[in-house]
Amino acid sequence: MTKLRWGILGCAGIAIRACIPGIVQSQTGIVSAIASRDLQKSQEVAEKLNIPKAYGSYEELIADPDIDALYIPLPNHLHKEWTIRAAEAGKHVLCEKPASLTAADAEEMVAACEKAGVQFAEAFMYRHHPRYTRIKEIIDSGEIGDIRGIHGAFTFSNPGDSKNVRFKREWGGGSLYDVGCYPISAARMILGREPEAVTTHAFFSPEHDDVDMMMSGLVEFSDNVALTFDCGMWAGFRNTIEIVGATGRIEVPSAFVTPTDESGQFIVHSRNERRVETVPFLNQYALEVDDLAYAAWGEKQPNYPANDAILNMKVLDACLESARTRSRIVL
Predict the structure, then answer these.
(1) Structural domain span for residue 35
(2) Which intervals hold domain Gfo/Idh/MocA-like oxidoreductase N-terminal (predicted)?
(3) pLDDT tens digit string along 221-246?
(4) pTM value?
C-alpha cells in the first residue's frame, strides 16, 4: 500500500508523545524525517523513534523531495510562515491548533494551500474519533430532545513553568488558544453552524506576560442555543463536554483527550434512564492522519474542510476581543 511520507517540523512534546506515534499506528503514513533548529536534538529524537532522517533546519526538511506532508507543532506564531512555505514546496500540511493568531492569517494559509493544490488540516484530533459520530446520531434521533445548551471545559495547571511558550503573548500564548479552542470547535461541530456573538471574561496574568490564564465565555448560536465554556492553565484538570437537551443530556467525561479504552465512553441520560455508551479505543491522531492522507490521494473529501480553521479562528478572535474590552462581540 502507498504510504504518505511525513516530515515533522520541530521536536515539540506533542509531536513526540502523540502525533508521531499516531502516524506510526495509522493505516496510511510513515514518518520519514524530523527537523529542529538544533541538529543534535533532531538526531536524538530520530534515533529514539526510529526516524530515518534528521535535519538541523526547517528549510532542509521542506526541501526534501521524499516528503509528501508536514506536521507543524511549532509555537502558534510560526504556524502561518511555515504552512505557507510548506505549501509553496508542494507539501500537504497538518498544523497544530490553533491554526494561527488571527482569522486573517488563517485565510492566507488556506489560500496558499489551495493555490498549491495541497491539503490543509487543523489538528483537532478528538473530532475524528467515532464517538462523536455516535453522539450526533443520538442527537439526530431526538432521544434527548432539542439541544438547549452545551457546556465545555478544558483546564490544567502549570503556572510555574516560566519558559513555557504558552506564557508568551506575542507567540500566541494563553489558555484560549491552547485549550479553549477545543470546546468552541466542538460546539460548532455538534451544532453544525456558526455562532452569532460571544461574551467572555478572562484572568490576564502579569506574571505570565499578560496572557489569559483562565477564560470563561458565552458563545451564542441561533435557535436560542449557547455554549458556555471555560478554559485555563492555572486550574484543576478538566476535559469535558455536556450536551443538554429538552428531555435528556449527554456527558462526555473525557471529551478531548482519550488515553485509555474507558475514556472513550460517554453517558446518555434520557427520560430518567442512564446508560453508558462505549466506543472502541482508537488512536485519534492516527485517524486525523488517515483523513488527510485519503484526501491528499483524492479518495475522499476531508472530514473537515480547510475553511473550518478560518471559521474557528473568527470565534477565537472575538473571544479575545471581548475579554480585553469587556464587551459582547457580534460575529
Answers:
(1) 4-123+287-303
(2) 4-122
(3) 999 999 999 999 999 999 999 999 99
(4) 0.96
